[in-house]
Amino acid sequence: MLEVNSHIATLDRDAIVTLLTTAPAEDLYRQADRVRHDAIGDEVHLRGLIEFSNFCRNDCMYCGIRRSNRHVQRYRMTDEELVETARRAVALGFQTIVLQSGEDLHFDQARLCRIIEQIKRHDVALTLSVGERDYTDYKAFRDAGADRYLLRIETTDTDLYHRLNPGMSWQRRHECLLMIRELGYELGSGIMVGQPGQTIASIADDLLYLKDIGIDMAGIGPFIPHPDTPLAAESGGTLELALRTMAVMRLLMPDINIPATTAMESLHPQGRIMALQAGANVVMPNVTEGEYRRLYELYPGKICVNDTPAHCRSCIGLKIQSIGRTIGQGRGGHRKSTI
Ligand code: SAM
Ligand code: FES
Q: What is the number of the ligand closest to the CA of 51?
């Protein structure tokens, strides 16, 4: 096992490749857990995730709600439903609300700003995850009160990106991340691990890229093939590689927020707990209500589709306590440490 503690900041590409492949996994997870504990403590921050529309103008080859998937029953919440769902999440104790959707321009600048302003009246942190938009949109959302933005770069292998995201531009996505950062949002990005054709070396590059652009939050999850997409027959990412990648991210950036992703739990019933013990410090329970949960199907086997927000909140609370961790008080923004 590489002794990484003393020179975390200098982990280079080769060292990262070793950690992602041959280093003993349990040692890596333990080190990431310790780095997390020393840098930001034992609190686990909860974010209430609202999946408010599954319409999307994009056609990402891996994604269950891609534009070309004719099997999807499309939905979008009304503005009132969306604000009411957020209000209920706040009543359940969530202090951050995450609004996620496909790239759905029905939610134009004015509409989304109105929604942001109404949710912000509840005195919560608000995260947007609505894809690529213009600078003027990002600025307007920020001015309306949005605090954080999640946009995964997915991969830094530009050939792979262009193969799997037809009609999209990697450079454009990168520029979106720079705009978001410049506007003063807390910046969330991340990658999907196990994409067909993705190499371990390119995952190492991805991690160095995320460190380099100075993200505040890293979402790292396994690719899970969806049957109604062109990648249906691919093998997908493993939980182990996703956990290793996440753990190395923690070593590289000790104080950022790292969620235990839902996709990890979709591969293993204890996936999120395993992630929390390998460097993660955030969980994003789904607070979307009713039928919409099932219809926002990015990949098969999505967890909790028949549960209620209240059930998910209490279930994850018990799991977190069972491993000796506490639920975070406050909004749980990126708290830069001095180590
Ligand atoms: N439209 C927004 C965007 O592009 O950022 C947010 C929604 S998008 C569906 C959220 C994330 O889901 C993507 O960044 C991608 O990494 C992940 N995702 C999509 N399809 C997936 C799959 N088959 N398996 C695992 N994750 C997937
Ligand atoms: Fe747009 Fe997946 S293709 S959200």
A: 1
